[in-house]
């Protein structure tokens, strides 16, 4: 499907201001949506919302279905009567421009624990009914996830393939034994998921009511230490003891000379095909209950993926293996209808990848930071876009900020960017945003750091590194300092105004086609 001409901002909820060490779904999330409305934007794009494990990466989650309960807002729990103002105020810390995850986890573990107990004691009939419905509606994944998390805590967060054999191999009697032994922790994690999804749906509804669509992100692979691999090990390349056999990555590229060894266990696509790709259908169905559209990460991996033996130390020694291609997406379309999907089609693109993307009319991505190689045929240069059915970015969460990119760029890149835009480079961020806005791309989305004119210290992720990522946050003053009038000017100049009546009609059409049919 094709999206309407619009613009928006890329920022993850962990980057919101808060007094608890990391951003969450509380008041700052609503103020950010108000910022989008005030500047006539109509898109909010985020990173994956799953519970994070090692390194706090949203792309390394304990579950492909669960939500990150550390995004639950204590302020909203006060409004529900599950915490008091005094209890919440006692746990606050000064806001910073970097997330302090360890402190945030300690604070929220304590607050969420108290709130969960009060929820149980409160005996509110409406909340109890909603909780019951939530548990029933999510039977496909919730029991396995909550047991997995309770067992992870029991084993000191050691990976599941290091648990006792009966649990590792999911023997029925052992599973029942642990369900009985860890009843309280399982109940706690059930409530956390219930509260997370309540808070998330409220945020999304607030955005939708103001003609803001929310674009989520679905990683192609899942983490080895996840409830998904533990509970559906037959679908993944792991041995009988749960150890990885074949893992994911990408060969050497722009980001790394040795490639990127992600380490996620690869899928057994033939096994998945035999059961009608049921796990994937459920996964997409879940995503479209949460978002208006989704960016499918590493889209090329569905056509062909880089296979590396789990014993390798880098991604250099690997091979391309054919993926499920049309079989998967045809099945998803047959089961769920036409879906608003953005294909993350960066990296080495083959004719087959392009054909797969275009056969479903999925828009691809255009990154302006990749455009200025002094090659007039560079596919990222706006004059080479063969269709408006694409999304343009200055950069994504994996790129430097635009100021950082420019300052570290080669003389050739700097010169070509100045020549192409006919500027002197003193205002490079707004020049790049203007170029993106005026392009033919249907959607123009920019990281919030660029709207704030920030340098490399505010970068979100350094691909190929394991620590120091996903920490960036902004303060309320930083958001207040954004030149909103200039954003409104560029949006009007480029015909991307969310208040245009035709655009509103198209937005409703997107939501109807992509969500209501589920």
Describe the structure.
By secondary structure, the protein is an alpha/beta fold. The protein has 21 helices and twelve strands. It has helices at 27-38, 74-79, 85-89, 101-122, 125-137, 142-154, 165-168, 172-181, 183-208, 227-231, 269-274, 278-290, 326-336, 351-359, 402-408, 411-421, 428-438, 448-451, 476-480, 484-493, 501-516, and strands at 6-10, 43-45, 213-218, 246-250, 260-265, 293-296, 304-309, 319-322, 341-343, 364-367, 390-393, 443-447. The longest helix has 26 residues, at 183-208.
Please estimate the helix content: 40-55%
Shape: globular
Strand content: 5-15%
The pLDDT mean sits at: 94
Notable traits:
11% strand; 8-stranded parallel sheet; 21 helices; 518 residues; 4-stranded antiparallel sheet; alpha/beta; TIM Barrel; disordered C terminus; 12 strands
Summary, kept brief:
The protein has about 525 residues and is of the alpha/beta class. About 40% of the residues lie in helices and about 10% in strands. The protein has a single domain, classed as Glycosidases (TIM Barrel), CATH 3.20.20.80.
Q: What's the structural blueprint in terms of helices and strands?
A:
Blueprint: E1 6-10, H1 27-38, E2 43-45, H2 74-79, H3 85-89, H4 101-122, H5 125-137, H6 142-154, H7 165-168, H8 172-181, H9 183-208, E3 213-218, H10 227-231, E4 246-250, E5 260-265, H11 269-274, H12 278-290, E6 293-296, E7 304-309, E8 319-322, H13 326-336, E9 341-343, H14 351-359, E10 364-367, E11 390-393, H15 402-408, H16 411-421, H17 428-438, E12 443-447, H18 448-451, H19 476-480, H20 484-493, H21 501-516
Parallel strand pairs: 1-2, 1-12, 2-3, 3-6, 6-9, 10-11, 11-12
Antiparallel strand pairs: 4-5, 4-7, 7-8
Helix pairs in contact: 6-9, 12-13
